[in-house]
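User: Could you go from structure to sequence for me? I need the amino acid at each position, not a summary. Structure tokens:
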């Protein structure tokens, strides 16, 4: 299996989850090479067969090289998870202009995911059928449907809504031989969440029926479930991982 964007956060946790269960794994990153090395070490320490690939999915040639190398390495890929996304909330990126953030999110989260998913699905259709259907999982956002105020909402809602719509369309295009589903995390305490202000911390907790942040492990658990043969009749769906969303009470 392949997990893009597995240098940190949700992608890293998903990779480790599958490795623990003995899956042969390809991890991927681009800018965060230190994080990719950490992910590779975590996966290798489980005893799983591991390979890492560095590629810029914003660029078509690099993205296609990632797909080609992954399939060449394993001869086949039965699970592909697109967890790669542009980080516009931490480090120097948090000070970028709205326009630059939008451009990077579009190139990585939308165009990159669409480009890779189409190529992967076509390769999966060419594979000799196995006992279970191959699966593609993409990452959306639970508030993409209802929207959120402010710059963050205006950035992430349309970007992640595009991923949801594409995933449903791809599922209709490649079924019944390939499954495509989408995971829509809520407030997940990745790097940004760990340093969030009191206001954002209170909001994240209040918008979940379980009154807590989600964790990358919560998302990884759902990814594991959706990719398994036991969930083979789940297709073309978007599964929210948010503890049950509720409007914030002001």
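Assistant: Here is the amino acid at each position, in order:
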């Amino acid at each position: 299996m392949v997990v893009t964007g597995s240098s940190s956060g949700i992608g890293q946790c998903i990779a480790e989850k599958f490795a623990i269960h003995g899956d042969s794994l390809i991890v991927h990153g681009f800018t965060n090479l230190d994080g990719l090395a950490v992910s590779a070490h975590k996966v290798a320490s489980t005893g799983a067969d591991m390979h890492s690939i560095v590629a810029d999915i914003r660029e078509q040639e690099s993205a296609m090289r990632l797909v080609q190398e992954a399939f060449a390495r394993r001869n086949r890929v039965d699970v592909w998870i697109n967890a790669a996304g542009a980080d516009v909330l931490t480090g120097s990126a948090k000070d970028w202009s709205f326009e630059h953030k939008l451009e990077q999110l579009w190139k990585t989260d939308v165009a990159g995911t669409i480009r890779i998913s189409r190529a992967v699905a076509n390769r999966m259709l060419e594979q000799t059928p196995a006992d279970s259907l191959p699966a593609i999982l993409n990452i959306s956002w639970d508030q993409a449907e209802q929207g959120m105020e402010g710059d963050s909402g205006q950035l992430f809602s349309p970007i992640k809504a595009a991923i949801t719509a594409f995933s449903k369309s791809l599922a209709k295009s490649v079924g019944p031989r390939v499954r495509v589903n989408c995971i829509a995390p809520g407030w997940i305490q990745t790097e940004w969440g760990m340093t969030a202000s009191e206001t954002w911390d209170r909001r994240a907790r209040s918008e979940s029926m379980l009154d807590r942040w989600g964790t990358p492990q919560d998302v990884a658990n759902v990814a594991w479930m959706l990719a398994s043969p036991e969930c083979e009749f789940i297709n073309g769906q978007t599964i929210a991982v948010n503890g049950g969303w509720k409007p914030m009470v002001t």
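One structural detail worth keeping in mind: The chain has eight helices and seven strands.
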